[in-house]
Write a structure and sequence with these properties.
heterodimer; A: mainly alpha; Cytochrome C Oxidase, Chain A; two-stranded antiparallel sheet; 4 strands; B: 2 domains; five-stranded mixed sheet
């Protein structure tokens, strides 16, 4: 931090910037298709690569959910097309249990890791960090490029597991052993599981390379005047996200390596006292619960790895479009920090009914419900940001408002689940599914959509079609609530999650109509997302062109770059920053960019 | 054919929507962008308000439709604590849900862009921040307080007079063992498991406490108003003993025994009358994904009166006699030179080796 400031104080260093930039300019013309679009080291291109790969994965993961929703809504109906496409996995047009579990496992893995981690924070950390802190690129562009290509190879491995004869991993995205460790226990625990582990190992490498880059860029490459407390909130959010990832992903990797050993080398880290398929295994002394501790030590921060970038972007978009400063910048920052710290101390709330010592459980109840305090601060600050604003409903703004609504709904049901007493009844029921889909799945998607609509002009120099954007928002918003709100009732009735046919149960068979309704709505919502994808690609080439440098009238630095910035972002010197990023409606002016020096008569806030 | 139609309809809808969207963009350019933007802003502000109102009506309607389908009164004493906690939490979160959602959509509607409004520059107010740190903190402390009060009541030591049942999960079914007259479950070791030799849970026959243990599959009988203490284990992967009507749940972990206890309040017959459903049974569901048969991993719990239970138990023979029919005193001996239990054990060992 001090280094970069020193650098900027000395005028001769600034000249170096100039030289550096000229070099870039020369370099620019020599760029081939491969260096510009494929093995690019430009953070903007890498961000777009993450986004587009994320979109492809989101379509695959979303399609899987439509398939298993068909099974859930119409458990006794045949869909011959399924047999045509999936062969013996859907014999007679009905999804087999093995296939069903493979689908839900891949849906979870793909959406949690490949879409909402890589596709969301990979995209926006890459695009926004250098642009908003005022840097020409990431601290280590080569590592940044490698981060994408490790993600890509993780994708290839995971995708390949879909095409092997025993199918992909099928033990749920949490891959609890012994189910995931024993080849005999499930067809999905054969080669598919090894590929899953290899793919996730590559993914962890990608995440570490990216995360270290984001951290060092935010700490070292801020432009002159950009103190830490002048950073836009998305940058703070990405920064904490990166820290969480760097500290927690290695723990997952260690857990997975032990699992790989148990699977293939005969070790007993997680295995003990097992008779499977009539075969008595020699393993003794391992603990299946150990894996859950290791998994959730990543797994819970992971929830915030997904959510924090969305929170940061939503804060920015709400403020820009309410034409009003974000309320309580320091409180927002403090609550982000509190959430980041607490997220490491709550993992065992996923394990209240594993036989965990009840006293230990009580500590985790306390810490878990503590997280609701910074979350509440954020919600009230967002609400106050809207209060007495002058709100412009761009599609990005609508998604940001939708995010807040979903975050409230899903956050409040978290208070049910975090309380161990209620968790005894609600654990592993559809209530949990409804809760985390709203708060982590849909809400984060809304944050991501808000970001895409808001920064699309910066990414591609064109706008997305706004009317389609509105339709996209309204269908998704209404659909999300229709799908997940009534699902809580299934959970209150104790209906376990991951049941593919409830008709043989006395206690859980009463929701047939509801399941049908949910299936129909989810098909519509999925079709709507395809329309968004169409809008996305269509608009890259045919969208309305951006004609002004700062179309939203925003204060942050990315809007001081040319409409289509080249590698290096700013053509001349990197602008200097004189103020925080949220001077909207100050002293009667609609907005005051960060680059404008503080006037002599300006009021203080 | 049906799928083809659905796909065709979706595609058509897709195309139409896209054409409308494209056209509306041209129209907005023709009409002057500012006017068009103002118009869509109004429409969206109105829709947000409509969403709030219709959404709240929807929440009410959804509750009316579904409240009868969730579980009725808890069938265990401990479940009542959980239901109380549910109501307390619902009260607190429901209140917060209403005020925050109403504020969110109402502010969005009320402060929609207008040329005449002067935006209020309001970057921070520490007093407000303190208020909405302290109030949620107090509310959550209350919830934590109630929660832990009930949690320790539920997870505390089982009463001394509790009846003991051992529950073992396997792919894909449930096995139960009763300690018999001595009240002690005999020792077991997983390598002794051999269904072919009538030893499904791996009892060690050398332990005399095993000689009166009773083994049953799929159906567990317990006694109304008498605490039952479950000793839970698994043979292969992690399962979970889920008892929705009793509001109880505990994982079955291979290698690590877990426990839970509860006191059933109503017999199965009483529940059949209460629910008006003659087919009602308490179900034991596996709540932790365990492989392809997870959905069908169903057990039945029958809550009896003490007499019914005693009669049921008396009709069962200890598993020891199934493994060693010659030891069965009620069974006439067919062979006078019967092998002793010990020599039977040694042959058992040999065959395994």
């Amino acid at each position: 931090m001090s280094m970069s400031e020193e650098m900027h104080i000395q005028p001769e260093i600034t000249t170096t910037h100039e030289v550096h930039h000229n070099e870039h300019h020369v370099h620019h013309h020599k760029e081939t298709f491969i260096t510009k679009y494929i093995f690019s080291q430009d953070h903007k291109t890498i961000g777009k690569q993450f986004l587009i790969t994320g979109i492809v994965w989101a379509i695959i993961g979303g399609l899987f959910s439509v398939l298993f929703r068909l099974q859930l809504g119409y458990p006794n109906q045949n869909f011959p097309i399924l047999e045509t496409v999936f062969g013996h996995w859907a014999e007679g047009g009905q999804i087999k249990p093995e296939f069903y579990y493979a689908l839900i496992t891949m849906h979870g893995t793909v959406l949690v890791f490949f879409v909402l981690t890589a596709g969301l924070s990979g995209t926006f950390a890459n695009i926004l960090i250098p642009l908003q802190v005022g840097a020409r690129d990431m601290a280590a562009p080569l590592l940044n490029m490698l981060s994408y290509w490790f993600f890509f190879s993780a994708s290839v491995v995971m995708l390949s597991s879909l095409f092997i004869s025993t199918g992909p991993a099928a033990g749920g995205w949490t891959v609890y052993p012994p189910l995931s460790a024993l080849h005999q226990a499930s067809i999905g625990s054969q080669l598919g599981m090894d590929l899953w582990i290899v793919s996730m190992a590559l993914f962890v490498v990608s995440s570490l390379l990216g995360g270290l880059n984001y951290i060092s860029t935010v700490l070292n490459l801020r432009t002159k005047g950009m103190s830490m407390t002048r950073l836009p909130l998305p940058i703070w959010a990405m920064f904490f996200t990166a820290v969480l990832g760097v500290l927690s992903f290695p723990v997952l990797l260690s857990g997975l390596i032990l699992l790989l050993f148990d699977r293939n080398l005969g070790t007993s880290f997680y295995l003990s006292d097992i008779v499977v398929n009539g075969q008595i295994l020699p393993n003794e002394g391992g603990s299946a619960i150990l894996f859950q501790h290791l998994f959730w030590f990543l797994g819970h921060p992971e929830v915030y790895i997904i959510l924090l970038p969305a929170m940061g972007m939503v804060s920015e978009i709400l403020s820009v479009n309410a034409r009003k400063p974000i309320f309580g910048y320091m409180a927002m920052l403090g609550s982000l920090f509190a959430i980041a710290i607490l997220s490491f101390l709550v993992w065992a709330h996923h394990m209240f009914v594993t036989g965990l010592n009840p006293f230990l459980g009580s500590i985790f109840v306390l810490l878990t419900l503590l997280i609701a305090v910074p979350s509440a601060i954020k919600v009230f600050n967002w609400l106050t940001t809207l209060w007495r604003g002058n709100i412009r409903f761009t599609p990005g703004m609508l998604f940001a408002i939708g995010f807040v609504s979903l975050f409230i709904s899903g956050g409040l049901t978290g208070i049910f689940l975090g309380n161990s007493t209620l968790d005894i009844h609600l654990h592993d029921t559809m209530f949990v599914v409804a809760h985390f889909h709203i708060v982590m799945g849909v809400a984060s998607f809304f944050g991501m959509f808000a970001g895409v609509y808001h920064w699309f002009p910066k990414m591609f120099g064109r706008y997305l079609n706004t009317t389609l954007g509105y339709i996209h928002f309204w269908v998704t918003m209404v659909g999300a609530y229709l799908i997940f709100w009534p699902m809580h009732y299934e959970g209150l009735a104790g209906m376990p999650r991951r049941y593919l046919d409830k008709s043989s149960w006395v206690s859980f068979s009463q929701f047939g109509d509801l399941d049908k309704m949910i299936t129909i709505v989810s098909i519509i919502v999925f079709a709507m997302q395809l329309m968004f994808v169409f809008n996305f690609f269509y608009s890259i080439f045919k969208g309305r062109k951006v004609t002004t440098q700062n179309p939203w009238g925003a204060n942050t630095l990315e809007w001081t770059t040319p409409i289509r910035p080249g590698h290096g972002n700013w053509e001349g010197e990197i602008p200097e920053v004189h103020r925080w990023p949220y001077d909207y409606a100050k002293d009667g002016r609609e907005f005051i960019p960060q680059t404008e020096p503080v006037g002599a008569n300006e009021s203080k806030h | 054919m049906q799928t083809f139609f659905i796909v065709a309809i979706l595609l058509l809808g897709f195309l139409i929507t896209f054409q409308i969207a494209k056209a509306s963009e041209y129209v907005s350019v023709l009409r002057g962008e500012d006017a068009a933007k103002k118009n869509t802003n109004k429409v969206n502000a109105f829709l947000l308000l409509a969403f709030l109102i219709l959404g709240l009506i929807g929440v009410y309607y959804c509750n009316e439709r579904l409240k009868g389908k969730i579980l009725g009164e808890s069938a265990s004493v401990q479940g009542v604590f959980i239901d109380n906690m549910l109501w307390i939490t619902l009260g607190v979160t429901g209140f917060v849900f209403l005020i925050t959602q109403i504020a969110l959509f109402w502010f969005s509607y009320k402060y929609q862009a207008s040329d005449t409004r002067k935006t209020y520059y309001y970057p921070h107010n520490n007093k407000l921040e303190v208020i909405w740190t302290v109030i949620p903190a107090i509310a959550l402390s209350v919830l934590v307080g109630f929660g832990l009060f009930y949690w320790f009541k539920i997870t505390g030591e089982a009463p001394k007079d509790a009846m003991i049942v051992e529950v073992t999960g396997k792919q894909f079914g449930w096995e139960f063992r009763y300690p018999g007259r001595d009240g002690i479950l005999g020792k077991k070791y997983y390598k002794n498991i051999d269904p072919a030799k009538n030893n499904p849970v791996g009892q060690i026959w050398d332990d005399v406490a095993n000689h009166d243990d009773i083994f049953v599959e799929q159906e567990m009988h317990i006694v109304v108003n008498k605490p039952v203490h479950l000793i839970i284990g698994s043979k292969d992967v992690i399962h979970d003993v889920g008892l929705a009507h009793f509001r109880m749940k505990m994982d079955a972990v291979p290698g690590t025994p877990t426990t839970m206890w509860f006191t059933p309040k109503f017999t199965t017959k009483q529940m059949q009358e209460k629910t008006g459903n003659p087919n009602f049974v308490y179900e034991l569901s596996c709540d932790q994904m365990c492989g392809k048969g997870h959905t069908g991993m169903r057990g039945v719990v029958v809550v009896d009166t003490q007499e019914e239970f005693d009669r049921w138990l008396a009709s069962k023979k200890p598993q020891y006699y199934a493994a060693f029919p010659d030891k069965d005193p009620t069974k006439p001996k067919t062979d006078t030179t019967a092998t002793t239990g010990a020599s039977a054990m040694s042959t058992q060992m040999k065959t395994r080796n």
